[in-house]
Amino acid sequence: MASQKVSLACTICGSRNYTVMLSKDRTVRLAVKKYCSHCGQHTLHQQTK
């Protein structure tokens, strides 16, 4: 099974802080609460391409 590299972007400031490897058969966008160094707090990060 192949995987692809995607970025996680902060929903507050829009900066792309993290990259993750996900399988290609994933149909729902990943949304995780992570620390944003630009905002200085834990915010929701969503999958981008």
Question: Mind sketching the topology for me?
Answer:
Layout: E1 3-10, E2 16-23, E3 31-36, E4 41-48
Antiparallel strand pairs: 1-2, 1-4, 3-4
What does this structure look like?
Keywords: Ribonucleoprotein, Ribosomal protein. It comes from Leuconostoc fallax. Belongs to the bacterial ribosomal protein bL33 family. One of its GO terms (molecular function) is structural constituent of ribosome. This protein is an all-beta fold and 49 residues long. It has one domain (3-48): Rubrerythrin, domain 2, CATH 2.20.28.120. 0% of the residues lie in helices and 61% in strands. The chain has a four-stranded antiparallel β-sheet, with no helix packed on it. β1 and β2 (16-23) form a beta hairpin. It starts with a strand and ends with a strand.
Question: What can be said about this structure in brief?
Answer:
The chain has 49 residues and is an all-beta fold. It has strands spanning 3-10, 16-23, 31-36, 41-48.
